[in-house]
Every structure is written in structure tokens, then in C-alpha cells.
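Re-run with default settings, no changes from the original entry. Doing this only to confirm the output is reproducible before filing.
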Amino acid sequence: MTSIDSDTSQVIAEAISERGGRYLEAPITGSLSAAEEGTLLIICAGDLELFKSCETCFFSTAKNTLHMNCDVGSASKMNLIHSMLMSTSNAVLAEQMVVLERNNIPKSKLLDVIQLDSISCPLFSESGRAIVDQNFSTNTSLKYQQQNLHMALALSSSYAQPLRMASASNELYKATKSLGYSEHDMSAVYFGARH
């Protein structure tokens, strides 16, 4: 129930299957606030009957579950791709906040615009509010997001698929980590964008 690469998940599944067990990968997506609000998502792949047996337990932790398919590795890949979307979107938001700041426009006004537009979502609301309030207490750790970006880039490398936006975002997260913000919220990528 954590982020691992699909190869590792497959190795674990094989080891369990060889000993007569059943395996279900089930990474959890969401932030600390999502956990507190009970709105986490668990993405699963593997044994369907095991998924059905575990589903009630999953609902004690998460609001939603999704069984991708029976192919172990699919949920790990989806989790990394989902995390890549969040990380890259968050990096773009941070850069926009820096542009506003440099143009003497209150950063809070971007939150107003986002709230009134079709791109409104909890990610932009939470990260944007953290940047405006300069409160980077950890909701989703920057170190964790960069780790997932790194794994997603490795996944795409195996298919020779370029990920230009994610690669640039990964560099921004790494630069922010070098500034000492690893343990802060991922919205602290704002400091890397400012630097």
C-alpha cells in the first residue's frame, strides 16, 4: 500500500504465488488532508477475488477503490502516472505564483481565478493556499513527490518515451530539495521556482 515500481511489485507477487499465496497490489493515493477527510483512493491490480475480500477493509481507509485489472504492476504504474500529473501540475502552479509575485500581483488573485474556472481542484486550492500563506507544513511531502517522479521517469525510459514536462518538474523538485525543503509540503517547490 505504498509507491513502488511495477517490477518490484511483480517480484513480490511471484514470491507470494510460489508459496501458494495470492497477491494484490494496492497503492494509496492522496494527501494527509485526504486521509483526515477520508477521501483517499486505493488503486489495485492483481487477484480479483482477493480484491473483493479486501474491499470492505479498504473502505475503512479510503473513500474509493479501483481494481485496474489482474495484471500485477498496473496499479503501481497508474499510481506513478497519477503522482506525475500531480507533481507536474504543482510545479506549474508554483511557477505561476512566482510570475505573479514578480509582477506585483497578489498571489491570492490566482486562487480566485482558479476557483471561478474549470481548472478548480483540491490540488490547486491546497497548494495555492500553502504558497499564499507561506505555510509549507507537510500535507504531501516534496521528497515523496520527487521520488515518485523519478520512478515515473524510469518507467517511461524503459519505453523510450520522452517526458519533457515531468523531466523539467523533476529538476525543479530536486533543486528545491537541495535548498533544504525535502521534508516540507510539495508546494514548497515554489522556493525552487523562485531561486
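The beta strands are 24-25, 28-29, 41-46, 64-67. The mean pLDDT is 92.
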